[in-house]
Amino acid sequence: MGAFVISKRFNDEYKFVFTSRKGKIIFTSLSYELKFECEEDIEKLKENIESADFLKFKSSNGKYYFKLILKGSHLATSRKYTTSLRLQKGIDEIVKYGSIAEILDFSANDFVFED
């Protein structure tokens, strides 16, 4: 179904990614100083996914990517895709599952992993 995953960058700012049903990152958000700003933008995106714009680009090395624009604001940039068809499949997955995707928060530093 896909998921929004909140995490921290190395500079202690927050970001979120949208992962596909298969666990691949489709896009990564811009940085947020505060976690609640990150959470608010996820909710805005979930509620308004139908009105989001996906601006498509081709990089100098021939890879395809998009910028996610919501209400005139650049929210996120996609990973690089080898073909325009794969790029479109990534966009289609966001449109189809974005409004119902769960939100996972991995931003806390207090995770304990045991053997």
Radius of gyration: 14 Å
Helix content: 10-25%
Q: Please state how the strands of the largest beta sheet are arranged side by side.
A: 4-5-6-3-2-1-7
Count of separate DSSP helical elements: 2
Q: SSE order in H/E notation?
A: EEEHEEEHE
What share of the residues does DSSP label as strand, in percent? 25-35%
Give the tally of β-strands. Answer: 7
What is the general shape?
globular
Q: What does the largest sheet look like?
A: 7 strands, mixed
How many angstroms separate the termini?
30 Å
Question: Helix- and strand-based class?
Answer: alpha+beta
Oligomerization category of the chains in this entry? single chain
What is the residue-mean pLDDT, rounded to a whole number? 92
Poorly predicted residue ranges: none
Protein name: DUF1508 domain-containing protein
InterPro entries: UPF0339_domain, YegP-like_sf
Overview of the molecule:
It is a single chain. The N and C termini lie far apart (30 Å). The protein is built from 2 helices and 7 strands. A 7-stranded mixed sheet has the order 4-5-6-3-2-1-7. It is of the alpha+beta class and 115 residues long.
